[in-house]
């Protein structure tokens, strides 16, 4: 019989040998957490290695993602499509075992981790998604959505501020099926953490409303098993299991030292560890008995087929619910969704309201949330400024877990990282609001959504100095440029209600990445458009005002500055074209012929106008063009006065154009 320690040692040797072979990586955490991982993965985790996409699987997040060999070893040993050859290719180009776990590369990896603390916030989002779907779909004896979310964290994750944001909210929401194992090894990269991390972590989590299980010996499988059972029996609040461990456990000279954190142990120390742990096998050799004791495929198939039978009975008893849950989990569009949005776009253009684009966004959300019941909205305490609440929104709370709106509180980073977890879980489409300036607080979670190609929608209002009185702390300058330079993220800055509706449609219909909607505080008139122009908005940039006769100048603008560009064109004459460019990434993705039709190479007289950092616009206007932008911080004052002070006036635009270009027809 293979005992737990032997199974754990299989993880230890695969990890230290793979790191040694790659001559790069982190053996310490996998060796230290191997016993805990063995307890969780061998008998408790409900998953099916043959079908990593099974909806009701327990989710597992390795938030201390530098310990990637831990999860790769577990996936390999339990029977996922991760071969011994994959482990030998650890950290090599295009291998399925990249340096940090990456969603989409490796079967069984639920989220990309490595930026410490964010995996934990992703796990909070997954637990929230599970509970929300359970409340919306489970009926009487049918618990079709009913799984745990497990997360491993190290000292680093808990030092990171986002752990406070996410875990404080997880406590308030009472996410009882979230279970976190803390690898309390007293070591981070610089050494013994007592000099920089002396918190009473257990008391801290109790203060959040968590159940905390203290003083667990992370190398004593029975103690870990007992703690896990207690955690699984407490369903009204999340649980933190504090496990005392030794980093690099088993290495005779180096165990307990930061030297095992992020470097190969070396051949001599690995040989000494083989002797100390009585492991006579060659690197990457797992004897059959140990291998079969780890194999989770038969157990996984049995667990899933039990659930399949339940789901079949549920589908008989509640056919509409079953069909809807299936639709949501597979990500299929609701029937007629696109047609409803089309109609709303056409109606908006016809009604031609003068509203702030944040208000138009709220009107769009009304339509979107009606046709996409899987929308899970929210805001970081700015619901009434971001206008993210709608007539059908109701709060998701511990007592009302079926709600479709999350009050994230003032926690922008956790909001965005949790939304990644919600999106990864499936079944819900998250959107969340804050001021555009405060996307900075959430920056890396937005980047992670783009890296993982997740459909997450950011409602970022108060999009320029035009917001006025709150002043330069609140006025975004470089944020648009920063969002636009994020690969895979679509950024929209619509100029009116119609463009806002189109941006929402594009965001929600998109399956392969996140979208930032940058919206005005101040009212903006609806621009006149033909049907063809309405259709063209989705191309990201299009001719809003065509020249008559010879083209003498192109004005390019976005958002609130489109109105200004149109007024300037009226003054400058018939040869002036206005291009509205709500999304540069969308425009850049169009065929060259389309881009050239909108911005003909023959016309070098070009001026871009946007109350944001100017640098990105030279790409469109060229070095002989001009940009009217904001290369400096703003000022506090009434919005129109601030705009005028910084040159966003008709007179200034006309003078810049006339000084540089001859626009006579
Ligand atoms: C946000 C972020 N900052 C810094 C790092 C670099 N880094 C990787 S691991 C680590 C120390 C983590 O300590 P701990 O979680 O205790 O891991 P252990 O050494 O115990 O394995 C640091 C600073 C990172 N990956 N993410
Ligand atoms: Mg540590």
What does this structure look like?
Helix content is 43%, strand content 13%. It has 27 helices and 20 strands. Strands 10-9-11-12-14-13 form a 6-stranded parallel sheet, sandwiched between helices. Strands 1-2-3-7-6 form a 5-stranded parallel sheet, with helices on both faces. Helix 1 (4-22) packs across helix 2 (28-44). The chain is elongated. It binds thiamine diphosphate and magnesium ion.
Sheet with most strands: 6 strands, parallel
CA-based gyration radius: 28 Å
Sheet with the most strands: spatial strand order: 10-9-11-12-14-13
Strand elements, count: 20
Low-confidence runs of at least 5 consecutive residues: none
What is the number of helices? 27
- The proportion of residues in beta strands is 5-15%
Q: How much is the average pLDDT?
A: 98
* Helix/strand/pairing category: alpha/beta
């Amino acid at each position: 019989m293979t005992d737990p320690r032997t199974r754990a040692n299989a993880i230890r040797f695969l990890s230290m040998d793979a790191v040694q072979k790659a001559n790069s990586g982190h053996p310490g955490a996998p060796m230290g957490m191997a016993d805990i991982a063995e307890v969780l993965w061998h008998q408790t985790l409900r998953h099916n290695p043959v079908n990593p996409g099974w909806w009701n699987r327990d989710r597992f997040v390795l938030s201390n993602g530098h310990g990637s060999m831990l999860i790769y070893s577990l996936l390999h040993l339990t029977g996922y499509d991760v071969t011994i050859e994959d482990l030998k290719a650890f950290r090599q180009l295009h291998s399925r075992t990249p340096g940090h776990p990456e969603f989409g590369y490796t079967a069984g990896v639920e989220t990309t981790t490595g930026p410490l603390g964010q995996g934990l916030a992703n796990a909070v989002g997954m637990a929230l998604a599970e509970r929300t779907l359970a409340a919306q779909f489970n009926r009487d004896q049918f618990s079709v959505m009913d799984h745990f979310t497990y997360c491993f964290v190290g000292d680093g994750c808990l030092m990171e501020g986002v752990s406070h944001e996410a875990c404080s909210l997880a406590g308030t929401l009472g996410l009882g099926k979230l279970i976190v194992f803390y690898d309390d090894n007293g070591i981070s990269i610089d050494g013994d953490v007592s000099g920089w991390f002396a918190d009473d972590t257990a008391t801290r989590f109790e203060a959040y409303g968590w159940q905390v299980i203290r003083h667990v010996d992370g190398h004593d499988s029975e103690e870990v098993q007992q703690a896990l059972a207690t955690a699984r029996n407490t369903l009204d609040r999340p649980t933190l299991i504090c496990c005392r461990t030794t980093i690099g456990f088993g290495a005779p000279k180096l165990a307990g030292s930061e030297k095992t954190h992020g470097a190969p142990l070396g051949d001599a120390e690995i040989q000494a560890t083989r002797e100390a742990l009585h492991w006579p096998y060659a690197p990457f050799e797992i004897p059959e008995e140990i291998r079969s004791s780890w194999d989770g495929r038969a157990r996984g198939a049995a667990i899933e087929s039990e659930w399949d039978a339940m789901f079949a009975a549920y589908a008989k008893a509640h056919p509409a619910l079953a069909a809807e849950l299936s639709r949501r989990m597979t990500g299929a569009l609701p029937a007629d969704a696109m047609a409803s949005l089309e109609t709303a776009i056409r109606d908006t253009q016809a009604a031609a309201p003068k509203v702030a684009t944040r208000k138009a966004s709220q009107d769009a959300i009304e339509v979107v949330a009606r046709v996409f019941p899987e929308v899970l909205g929210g805001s970081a305490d700015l619901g009434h400024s971001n206008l993210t609440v709608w007539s059908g929104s109701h709060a998701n709370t511990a007592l009302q877990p079926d709600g479709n709106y999350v009050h994230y509180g003032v926690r922008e980073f956790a909001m965005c990282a949790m939304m990644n977890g919600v999106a990864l879980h499936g079944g819900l489409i998250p959107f969340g609001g804050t001021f555009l300036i405060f996307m900075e607080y959430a920056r890396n979670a937005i980047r992670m959504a783009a890296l993982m190609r997740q459909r997450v929608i950011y409602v970022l209002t108060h999009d320029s100095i035009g917001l006025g009185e709150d002043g330069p702390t609140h006025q975004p300058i470089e944020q648009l440029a920063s969002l636009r330079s994020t690969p895979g993220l679509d950024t929209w800055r619509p100029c009116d209600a119609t463009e806002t509706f189109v941006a929402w449609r594009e965001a929600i219909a998109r399956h392969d990445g996140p979208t930032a909607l940058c919206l005005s505080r101040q009212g903006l008139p609806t621009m006149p458009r033909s049907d063809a122009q309405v259709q063209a908005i989705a191309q990201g940039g299009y001719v809003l005002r065509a020249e008559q006769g010879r083209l003498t100048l192109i004005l390019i603008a976005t958002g609130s500055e489109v109105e200004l560009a149109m007024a300037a064109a009226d003054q400058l004459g018939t040869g002036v074209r206005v291009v509205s460019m709500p999304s540069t990434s969308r425009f850049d993705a169009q065929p060259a012929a389309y881009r050239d039709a909108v911005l003909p190479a023959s016309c070098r007289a070009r001026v871009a106008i946007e109350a944001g950092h100017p640098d990105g616009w030279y790409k469109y206007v060229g070095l002989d063009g001009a940009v009217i932008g904001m290369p400096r911080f703003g000022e506090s004052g009434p919005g129109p006065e601030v705009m005028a002070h910084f040159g966003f006036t008709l007179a200034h635009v006309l003078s810049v154009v006339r000084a540089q270009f001859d626009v006579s027809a």
